[in-house]
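User: For my dataset I need records formatted as: sequence, then structure tokens, nothing else. Please produce one.
Assistant:
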Amino acid sequence: MNVDFFIEQFSGIENPIKGVKLPHLKIEEKQFKKLNLPNNTSNYDFLRALCKRGFLSLNLPKDSLEYKAYAERVKNELSVINELGFVDYILLVWDVVNFCHENNIPTGAGRGSAAGSLVLFLIGVTKIDSLKYGLYFERFISKTRAKKTIIDGEIYLDGSLLCDIDIDFDYYQRHKVHGYIEEKYKGKTSKILTLNTLSSKLCIKEVGKVLGMKEESEMTDVTGLIPKIHGIVEDIDVAYEKVPEFKEWCDQNSLVYSTAIKLKDLVKNKGVHPSGILISFDPLEDCCPVELSSDKEVVSGYDMNWISLFTVKLDALGLRSVSVVDDCCKSLGIKAQDIDINDNSIYLGLQDLKYPHGLFQIEADVNFKVTQKVKPKNIEELSAVLSLGRPGAMQFIDKYATFTNTGVIDMSSGSPILDKILAETGGCCLFQETLMRCCKEVFGLSLDEAELVRRACGKKKKEDMMKFEKIIKENAAKMGIEKAAEFFWNLMLDSADYSFNKCLGESTVVETSIGNKMLFEISVGDKVRAYDKENDKDHFVEVIDKIHGEKELFEVELEDGRKIQCSMDHKFMCEDKKMHPLKEIIAQNYRILCND
């Protein structure tokens, strides 16, 4: 059917999607009795009672600063959760975890942004004390980000911004957990469809075998030429520009290459999300097409990006690692929750790790290699290992390893407070909480604003990043720490693996893959020469956007006679083989390198 015809036929139909309406949660009578509450207690008051029980179990001295800090934190969290309409979602997750606890099904400690909630810790959903480890609730739920809408007296939540809680439990008892959810929300649950696409490597490999009649071994060698940057596989068109051997093969097999370009990112096949469980307010078949998987399980007809717009997506994952930990503890006659993760003797085996098998996440090849370099001695350094193994953070591996092995930190930010915060991670901004802490304690942003900065960096939203760059630098100027702001912002760009186009005059000559052009002639999609810091070489990168700014430009005459109009923030390669902004070059009297 013609797409335009389809749109025309359905253009008059009002979009029925209003948001996520949380499924009704019925709390069992026995749960009210455990808390000495009447059966007609509201869900909010029930959540408060759960928190109170958990709070009292901490046994904090009433007259201590610690007691006041915990009391204030849980009070604020409950207020935000209630205001945003998240009470039933929190209790829905608690109900599943509580079922595990009551039926001796081991659960994980908690991970992701949920670890920042003290409420989740107090009610037993996580085992991580967010205050003890300096984790922020705003990382989990931010009032400036979450949204709710009231339509005809009913609350609808923005599914794309719904807080996310991952539940990990014993792999061998996952059928009990899934069965409990299916029974509690009968006719309203299913597994979630996934759509697997043709990635760059897979695409050219399959096309080469089918269309080019190539052997598997040859295509394995060809796809091995496609590079990874910070753990992310480059697109085949980018690899074509950067890798001469790959380009040569593609030129010799032009039909394979051109076909692969056309097919890249198309859906290859469908599957089932390993942990996602859909829970809807209405009967599932009334709001979503469904089908049966090969295992005869009900699966949504929409993938998770669409289904999360109007139903709850619960991440309930059966992990063998949870089972292994539980079995080990039982064989030793101890309980997992009694292990003191701050006992550094636990980490002695990581100092000279030879075999990573059976170590959750560390057994991955990248994390194993990071562990061998970093040699973690405590929980903080072990957490850093897992962060360093992610795309974007890999560039900091050697720097952080130098810190853990020698204690040396090569850093001077221009702010003692910023230096102190970053010193905890060897001068690298490895954790999103570190970013938020810097924004709050150094540059005066609120935690809600800091969460927006974190989100902008994580999602690489250029306009939002430019806005916050301006705010941070203005605040820094008022405090006289301009150097610290520049240092911090460059660190953010590196941490997010993100770079802005620099401010240049429109008459600047730029080298492209098809010859020189003036800047005003450059279009989105052109390949321009840029410097690759990681590999210390030039390469061509694709222009993804053009930004017209209003920064003041200055004319710089280089030793080779070239003149460049640029802002004070534009960076040049200097004699120390590092990129420095023009204002720093002037202040420090650096010498700019001129390439032939």
